[in-house]
Amino acid sequence: MPSRPDAASPVRDRIRAEIRRQRAARPTEQQLADDRLRDTRVLALVSELLGDQGRDAIVACYLSRSGEPGTADLVAALADTHRVLVPKLTTYDRGRPRREPDWTWFEGPDHLVEGVLGIPDPVGPGLGSRVLGEAKIVIAAALCAGGDGSRMGTGGGWFDRALVHRRAGVPVIALLNDDEIRTVPQEPHDQPVDWLVTPTRTIRTSVARAAD
User: Fold this and answer.
1) Which residues are documented as binding site for substrate?
2) pTM over 0.85, yes/no
């Protein structure tokens, strides 16, 4: 049962502040090493989940900003074998990403520019929020997530609004560091995740198991 927003928000704010401090303190060398280990696990999981669908399968993946589990190499590797959707945030609302999600095709690192809040932004035309319904897997950003499927983002709610457009049963993978696995109180708009991937662990959440 989701927690009431007025009860959950202070706890979530404290967790967000803690994890942001942890990420800011993590040495660059450690971040890069963790990214490599995590990428290997994600690619193996994607291959397992998609089976023989191969190049016909569409994967959606966030574009990481500084401090987040990195996806630059991951998105490029995915694009070698799949069509990849990435978030498009170039339409602003008072200097921040617009609330309505948008996606476009990943065309390579040369087709990215620095966007709002330091998030890489693709230069291709937006395809709208509903295109996420074509994806077979969604790789989502998160500050932390739990084995129960609970997920907490940075607070803007972009991915929660985006995930309502995915097809029923499509798995959502959250990328985390090892110290960011924790159950978090949920609010009514929060969307659960099916898999957690860290540099050392690949975890199927109880939400995903319950759907079997």
Assistant:
1) 63, 68
2) yes
Q: What is the pLDDT of residues 196-211, one digit of tens each?
A: 999 999 999 999 999 8
pLDDT band at 1 (very low <50, low <70, confident <90, very high): very low
DSSP characters for the chain?
Answer: -PPPHHHHHHHHHHHHHHHHHHHHHS-HHHHHHHHHHHHHHHHHHHHHHHGGGGGG-EEEEPPP-TTSPP-HHHHHHHHTTSEEEEE---SEETTEE-SS--EEE---GGGEEE-GGG-EEE-SPP--GGGGGG-SEEEE--SEE-TTS-EE-SSS-HHHHHHTTSPTT--EEEE--GGGB------TT----SEEE-SS-EEE-HHHHHT-
**Nearest Cα to Cα of residue 62 among 16, 110, 112:** 112
Least confident of 28-32, 53-57, 82-86: 53-57
CATH number at residue 123: 3.40.50.10420
Residue 125 burial by CB count (10 A; 0-12/13-18/19+): exposed, middle or buried?
A: exposed
Domain total of the chain:
1
Residues making up the annotated binding site are 63, 68
For 184, the domain range is 5-210
Strand-pair category, 92-93 with 96-97:
antiparallel
- Token readout for 17 is 């502040």
